[in-house]
Design brief:
Helix content is about 60%, strand content about 5%. It is mostly helical. It folds into 2 domains: about 120 residues, no CATH class; about 160 residues, no CATH class. Strands 1-2 form a two-stranded parallel ribbon. β1, α3 and β2 form a beta-alpha-beta unit. α9 crosses α14. It is elongated. The relative contact order is 0.06.
Amino acid sequence: MCSYSIKEIYVIEPKVALNYRNMWLSFSGMVALKVRTGGSKSPGIIIHETVKQILNEIIVENACKLVIFIDELDRCRPNYAIETLERIKHYFDDERIIFVVSVNKEQLVHTISNFYGDSFDSTGYLNKFFDMNIYLPEIPQYSKRSTILQTNQGQYHLKKITEELGEYYNLSLRDMIIFHQNIESTSTQRCNDYSKEGCILSIFIPIILALDIVNQTEKKRFLEGEGGTFKKLCQNLPSLRKLICLFGDKSGNDNEDYRVGFEKIYEVYECAFAPNKTYEGELDISRDLKEICIQVCNGE
């Protein structure tokens, strides 16, 4: 067992980085020396010996293991991903070293197929690099919701619409965190439940920020007043429908309240985002609503 304290780990980290640098400098010097003296060792052997020497310096106890994490290898350039795996296999064949590679295996197989051709056995090729595969289940929506959105009092609608947009677009945990952070950076004075404009901004702002993550083309269309995405979201998000009904005639009929409320909200949307439109409706809305939306999305 390795018995390092937290303080000792912080000391080891820069040493490891320094040793990697020394390994490169040492390797460069060896190659230069070989060229000058005509040594018999090939560059491959020199690299292998140098790596082993540096690892012996890092791993000072026989029972110690050096664990190296490589994340999102499938997102790298195909040739880089393949070369990385090949070099790990060739130069780091040491029982004291454990590589933990976090990848979308299906995507990496696809990457390798694109590199070598469809007839190449990409799955078999990839399997030779890994001794064990651990499959992580997809994170369920209720777990994603546990990344609690920090909103303020008077932002109920903003919070509910944000949560449902995350579910509707099936955001990954990473994207959900980014989405929530972007929402949290918006102006609390602008997005609120107290005024009609605040409620309308609580509709538009999360939609713009969600589209910024999932689809830039749809975001551009939304900002240009093409209402296809907006209509679809209003039909599919219960929180949006509930808020829109509050702009209805309060007739007691949900369908009728939604119809009337949607006409009012959509008129605001068209006049704010579509070109050459002037709002003359009954709601007290700023003329520069689009600019306000953009400013709020930018955290201003």
